[in-house]
Amino acid sequence: MANGVVLLLLFHLLVMSSIAYVVEERSIYLILMEGEPVAFHGRKFDTNSEASKDHAKKLVDSHDQVLQRTLDKGSYNKLYSFKHVLNGFAVHTTPSQAKKLQHAPGVKLVEGDRRTKVMTTYTPQFLGLSQTVWTQEGGDQNAGDGIVIGFVDTGINPFHPSFAYDILNPLTSNISHFYGACETGPQFPSFSCNGKIVSARFFIAGAQALSPLNATIDIPSPADAVGHGSHVASTAAGNAGVPVVVNSFYYGRASGMAPRARVAVYKAVYPTVGTIADVVAAIDQAVADGVDILNLSIGPDEPPQDTVTFLSFFDIAMLFARRAGVFVVQAAGNSGPGPSTVLSYSPWSVGAAASRTDRRYIGSLLLGNDLNISGVGLSAPTFGNGSLLYKLVLAKDAINLSGTFARTPPYVDECQYPEAFDPNIVRGSIVICTFSAGFYNDTSTLTAIIDTARVLGFAGFVLVANPSYGDFIGQPIPYSVSGTLVTKVADAKILSQYYEQQTLRDERGFVTQFNARAAIQDGRFASFGGQAPIVSRFSARGPDFIDIDRNPADVLKPDILAPGHEIWAAWSPLSALDPILTGYNFALISGSSMAAPHIAGIAALIKQKYPSWTPSMIASAMSTTATKFDKNGQVIMAEGFEVGSSNAANNFDFGAGFVVPSHAMDPGLVLSSEFEDYIRFLCSMPNIDRFAIRVATGAWCSQSLGHPANLNIPSVTISALRRSLTVRRSFKNVATKPETYVGLAIPPNGTTITLHPPWFTIAPDGTQDLDIEKLTGFNCLINTRTILNMKT
Length: 792
Description:
Elements: H1 2-23, E1 27-33, H2 50-70, E2 76-82, E3 88-93, H3 95-102, E4 107-112, E5 116-118, H4 123-126, H5 129-136, E6 148-153, E7 197-202, H6 205-210, H7 228-237, E8 242-246, E9 249-254, E10 262-267, H8 276-289, E11 293-296, E12 298-300, H9 313-323, E13 327-331, E14 350-356, E15 359-361, E16 363-367, E17 372-375, E18 390-394, H10 409-412, H11 423-426, E19 430-434, H12 437-440, H13 446-456, E20 460-464, E21 483-486, H14 489-502, E22 503-505, E23 511-514, E24 517-520, E25 526-528, E26 534-535, E27 560-563, E28 567-570, E29 586-589, H15 592-609, H16 615-624, E30 637-639, E31 646-648, H17 651-654, H18 661-664, E32 669-670, H19 675-684, H20 690-697, E33 715-718, E34 724-733, E35 739-743, E36 752-756, E37 759-762, E38 767-775, E39 780-783, H21 784-787, E40 788-791
Parallel strand pairs: 6-10, 6-11, 7-10, 11-13, 13-14, 14-27, 18-19, 19-20, 20-21, 26-30
Antiparallel strand pairs: 1-3, 1-4, 2-3, 5-12, 8-9, 14-26, 15-25, 16-17, 16-24, 18-24, 22-23, 28-29, 30-31, 32-34, 33-39, 34-38, 35-37, 35-40, 36-38
């Protein structure tokens, strides 16, 4: 009996030990410390000065001392010391050890790490850059010269022509303000930093701590195994006029927004995992290096759980980057079109929403009865370019009846497995595959269809919509075999009706004769026209919010709209996350990730023309000159939940409107907000604890704006207007001559707006206050471009 008791107790202890082990699994924690970082310690931020180096060493030593003094030996691994624009560190430890840090002297904030993700040629012409802004700046041979754009992303493909150094037109501008480094490693030799790429670093400690990495794709160097970082960098700053050739087909030439800007690479997101720790370390280093513009087409994949959105570690890192004089642009997110889906929250970063341009790639399927069905796919035509028709076979009519595979949709309908088919039936035929459960659940892929088609010798394939799942969204992806996507159920029914009319079956339903014929037309030629821009369906929407419960904030998000749908740009042939693009040097992809670098490149052009302008002045110039109308003069539309649906867009869809670079180069008036203004904004918010503001920013709430809507930015957003409120905006004339402005307000429903003064004349470098009085209503938003729309 005694032995039984001992065994029972031992079993109990083992169970408790197992439970404790699960609870105490290590995680990454971000810690913010008391004391100024290097950037704000002295009068001048110079990372190479002895004073800066000494202060940086003191900060690192203090981080180590806190860890050694507070945590158990062997219970942690310090990943980074943040010392340039933030004073803090990242540590990999257990929850119980992290709790000890919360009470350690000198520690202000402890925050759990969150996962990060990527927010995934023709646009220079669509935006009017080549005809206007580039001409003003000396053409594409000068546009962006002297400006360094930093990219925190998945790395870069250093061998891509978009980043080649042109020895016949060398970059000679002075970038002495920039200090970078070229960290070499696998697939990133020392000559990768060639003068166009002026710096390249990688940050991997967080990824290594969180998950076992795959050395073949999680490359420990600045090399891009994904393609996303290369795409983003070339969209903003890729060389001008680079030929886009995919599958031996010439699609035109690609150019970045600021083709002469320099590129600084900060790889912080990996195919296996991305962490905030790596991203914050990259931001900290990018600002220390001296980048002018910082592009973040990556970010947390959810709002912070236990703090307000503005005070998360990630947003505070962006605040201090802005304080150091860096223009920061974020991807707004890809979870639209639902309300409050934005992942860009704070007024100190510019959140870019994504739009379509007027370029479309339209393929088609020519039937034997001369009907043409619209399709999608960057595909070569079947042999004969429509003059030869091929046998049309429905996938489930070509099943290998003696096969031992499962009779499930991926095998029977979706063409995922070559062994499912009778090769004698499908060889030389166009096979109809059907969108079914596998595609709906993201377990089936176009790559598998293409592989099946190649193995079995299809003449081509068609993936058609399924009435059980409705219309689907098809992106024009390059196919190495002929193929097209029929995305609408109505078109799929036309194809099905023709096929059944022409196909003979026996009494059991088996096909005895395939008489339907078809040809796949060329889908690689672009057409131009129609309404544009249109807010893309996936583009994240406002209103902005302050916490995980989506309580509204008095800030307009997204900030601005830019092209982000079907953008050609550089790619990595490894294409670790998109096998269908493996081997390609260019890709046509969509996302607010693609919109952000358009804004980054345009910001570089403005910075080049006005080197003394602050980031808020650059942001203001783009916002106050943005348009709410498309190229035909109609109100910009926004795609809705239903495929093919759209409605008139509003400020929560596109922010200030669609960016117009030529107008942004001459805005007339600008609004400016700096670090102290952002602190006063935070201190004006009724639902934020003032001590939390002190902890996150290091600043006391000695002053307030009275109401958050008094922050001097190019929009006025009031989430809950009770009776009346008067807010103020202060404008500066950046033109070279006196100008007169007449105000016009279009009140939202249920409100009235009065402007004081109704008009004003302002001298060069002069300032003018404008009081905006709003009466009654609720959820009121106006944009200063609406208020000030007449200039003489």
